[in-house]
Write a structure and sequence with these properties.
Layout (H helix, E strand, L loop, with lengths): L1 H14 L6 H29 L6 H11 L12 H22 L7 H13 L3 H29 L5 H9 L4 H25 L6 H32 L11
Helix pairs in contact: 2-4, 2-8, 2-9, 4-6, 6-8, 7-9, 8-9
C-alpha cells in the first residue's frame, strides 16, 4: 500500500500548475522580493532627488540635468527622452511586482473577515504591516500608472515646469494620495523583505528604523510638494522654463 500512495503524491505535485507549484511559487516569491527592493530603493532615492527643490530652483535644475545625462551634452542640458525611457522601465517593474504580489491578495469576503479576526485576536505588529501593505498596494495599482504615464507623455522636468504641473494641472491632488501610500508600501516592504529572507536578525530594531525612515520620507515629501505649490503660485501662464543664472 505504501508503494501505491507515493505515486499519488507525486501526481498531486506534478498536477500543480502555475504559481501553485512549489518551484514556481518560490521563483515568484524571489521575483516579487527583487522587484519590490528595486522599487523601494528607487522611491527613497526619488524623494531625495525631488527634495533638492528645498535647496532652491537652481539646485533642483542641476539635479535634473545630471539625471537626464546633461554631462554628455555640449550645452549641459539633459535629454528628456531618458526620463521617458526610465519611466517606461519602472512601469514594467511595477506591473511585474503587482502580478506576483496579487497571488497573496485576499479575493473573497471570507478571507478579509478571517484576516480582520486574526488582527483583532492576535494584534501582531507584522500582521498589521502586512494588512497595510495590501491596502497601499491596492491604491498604488491605480495611482502609480497615472503618474508614470504622465511622465512618459510629458517628460519635461524643471523648477517651473514641475511646479506648473503640480499647481496649475492640479497634480497635487494625485501626489497627496500617492505620497503616503508609496512611502508606507516602500518602507514596510523593504522591512518585510529583510525579515523574510533573514537579512537582519534584530527585527524590532529594524522595525523602529523603518518607522523613523517613514516619518522622515513623509516630511521631505510633503515639504517638497509644498515648495512646488508655492513656486507654482508665483508663476504666470504660459510658464517659461527656468534658466539658471
Amino acid at each position: 500500500m505504501e508503494s501505491q500512495s507515493l505515486p499519488a503524491k507525486n501526481n498531486n505535485v506534478s498536477a500543480a500548475k502555475g504559481f501553485s507549484h512549489p518551484i514556481w511559487a518560490a521563483r515568484a516569491d524571489s521575483l516579487q522580493s527583487i522587484s519590490g527592493v528595486l522599487l523601494g530603493l528607487f522611491i527613497i532615492a526619488h524623494l531625495h532627488f525631488e527634495s533638492s527643490i528645498l535647496l532652491g530652483k537652481e539646485a533642483f535644475y542641476h539635479v535634473v540635468q545630471f539625471l537626464e545625462g546633461g554631462i554628455f551634452s555640449e550645452t549641459g542640458h539633459g535629454y528628456p527622452l531618458l526620463t521617458q525611457i526610465f519611466s517606461a522601465f519602472m512601469l514594467v517593474v511595477v506591473m511585474i511586482h503587482a502580478i506576483f504580489a496579487l497571488r497573496r491578495f485576499p479575493t473573497q469576503i471570507g478571507q478579509w473577515r478571517a484576516l480582520r479576526q486574526q488582527m483583532h485576536f492576535l494584534p501582531h505588529e507584522d500582521t498589521k504591516i502586512w494588512f497595510w501593505q495590501m491596502v497601499t498596494g491596492f491604491l498604488l495599482f491605480f495611482l502609480v500608472p497615472v503618474h508614470l504615464f504622465t511622465m512618459i507623455m510629458n517628460p519635461e522636468i524643471g523648477p517651473h515646469l514641475s511646479a506648473e504641473r503640480v499647481y496649475y494641472d492640479n497634480v497635487w491632488i494625485l501626489y497627496i494620495l500617492l505620497l503616503p501610500a508609496v512611502v508606507v508600501h516602500a518602507v514596510f516592504g523593504l522591512y518585510r523583505v529583510c525579515v523574510k529572507w533573514g537579512l537582519v536578525q534584530q527585527r524590532f530594531a529594524l522595525l523602529k528604523f523603518a518607522k523613523v525612515l517613514l516619518v522622515y520620507l513623509m516630511i521631505i515629501g510633503i515639504a517638497s510638494l509644498v515648495a512646488y505649490i508655492v513656486i507654482g503660485r508665483t508663476l504666470e501662464l504660459p510658464v517659461i522654463p527656468f534658466v539658471p543664472t
